[in-house]
Amino acid sequence: MSAAIVIGADRSGAPIRIDIEELLATRLLVQGNSGSGKSHLLRRLLEQSANLVQQVVIDPEGDFVSLADRFGHVVVDGSAYDQAEIVRIAARIRTHRASVILALDGLEIESQMRCAAMFLNTLFDAPRDEWYPALVVVDEAQMFAPAAAGDVADDVRRLSLAAMTNLMCRGRKRGLAGVIATQRLAKLAKNVAAEASNFLMGRTFLDIDMARAADLLGMERKQAETIRDLERGHFLGLGPAIARRPVSVRIADVETRARNVVHGLMPLPNVAGSEMEDLLLTEVSMPEMAPRPAPVPEPVVDAGELLEQIEDSQPLAEQVERPVEPSLFEAEENASAIVEILAEMAVEPDCTFQPAAQLFQDFTVRCRMARITNSGIDLAAFRRRFAMAIAGIPDDKAPQWREIVALSADVPDDLLAPFLVLAVAASEGAVCPDDDRLAEVYGTRSSGRIRRLLDHLERQGLIVVRTDYGGRRSVGIPALGLLTQPA
């Protein structure tokens, strides 16, 4: 099972997917001229992944606030709060994993840059135990990470550029995955764009932008002309989360729309020229003029109330109904489902070569999809349960595995899977696992590391390695009096 979403289809109609787990580790850059469909693409990405991962949207035009009605995002109006309140709100977002849209359309460009910088820096500086995975989507990224000085003050530009650089260069280790969209690559700072490993390139016309897009997609310069011919809503995708070779993507439909935006033509008013002239130029006497009601400003949410709203928000993926009184049967059912999830993950190719934090994130997503709201397993416990699953031990409750699991309590987490594989083989009287099998469960391709691993386990008194005259190896577990068959 993979946390992948369908972003669109290729020329033949086959679905094109984005792996959200891979995207969290490798980031995404979207480029296209105005009207190419960037906002539509970002909206599709946000809608489809809303139930998988926390989302933070930096929205300079207020295009994405409509997501709140459908997916429960908290809308933060950047123009309604001062710097200290923005910092407190951003800190609370990290703590409570709320999906948020920072709407900046009520601010001037310098204020937008300053507000976004303070917001992003607070997300970046969160305590280590709050480094939860989150997609951070920045629309019109060239405004916040300009390639050259412009009309804004230099200190504001440096502050905003530093925040964007932190997001794209160092945010991954803090769980922040940058998704940035820009109209022109030439206007976006190179050190920000270079950190993305996934690309979706839409229609663009300037030679310099086409050349840079072609370079990022691994295309020859003469092929760059094809980028100019892309239709609206069509993109060329490449990257570990999308495809290993450039693929054409037609972005699929979305469920929500931007507010107060009319796409296409509208009928003109059916008013003759003289009548329109009277409407525009003729003075209207005050007694005959109907009183026009004063515009009612939209209520501004108080900062304290907004903080409470963020605290009360619940990630969409966790909004499942819980039974009033959990039963013993339900607990057993959850435990059985967790065993199945771990077993499925353990047989996936190259699973042991992935970082433990990434595997744990995959595990939590699978649990939520299986409607397990609280697995009771943290990262440390997951490392050991996953190592047991690799070795074929479903849990530590079965009598035949109890002694092996108890013996492994003092084995370091990174050595646990190879030790358990050897212990299980010895308990079953099976053939000793070879170097390739041990390297696979250890997450390495070096046979030298396996030899050093066996030497280390033997020095710790956990195993005894024997080699007969025929060069066949067997491994014993002295504490349990078990021995594998030679191989």
UniProtKB/TrEMBL annotation:
Signal peptide coordinates: none
InterPro entries associated with the record: ATPase_Atu1862_pred (IPR014588), HerA-like (IPR008571), HerA_central (IPR002789), P-loop_NTPase (IPR027417)
Domain Helicase HerA central per the UniProt entry, residue ranges: 10-90
Protein name in the entry: ATPase
